[in-house]
Specification:
about 80% helix; mainly alpha; about 100 residues
């Protein structure tokens, strides 16, 4: 009997690969630091920083996907749908206003 593979989204795979890469770079950093007294801390820190950025984009994407799924699920009650759409629109307007004021 064949075992079915579970579907994992590409963005989630990408975040997992980035995490493994960060741990590999950290282990290499520790080995180079202890054995050869070489400091590559900027590379190590940059890899973890890039991982943090990738996670932030992934969480943002998942949040927006979840909002779309919620809007589709509550079509039965139009009042709740209107409240959520207004909240999303207000959040979007606030984000735009903040980015304009920060420039």
């Amino acid at each position: 009997m064949k075992k079915e593979k579970t579907f994992v989204a590409y963005s989630k795979k990408l975040c997992n690969y980035a995490r493994y890469e960060c741990w590999a770079i950290t282990i290499v950093y520790i080995i180079l630091l202890v054995v050869f007294d070489k400091d590559i801390s900027p590379i190590c820190l940059a890899s973890w920083g890039a991982y943090g950025v990738a996670r932030a984009f992934y969480y943002n994407m998942a949040k927006s996907d979840h909002q779309i799924q919620l809007l589709g699920a509550i079509d039965k009650n139009d009042k709740v749908k209107e409240i959520i759409e207004d909240k999303i629109e207000n959040d979007f307007i606030e984000t735009i206003n903040e980015s304009i004021s920060s420039d």
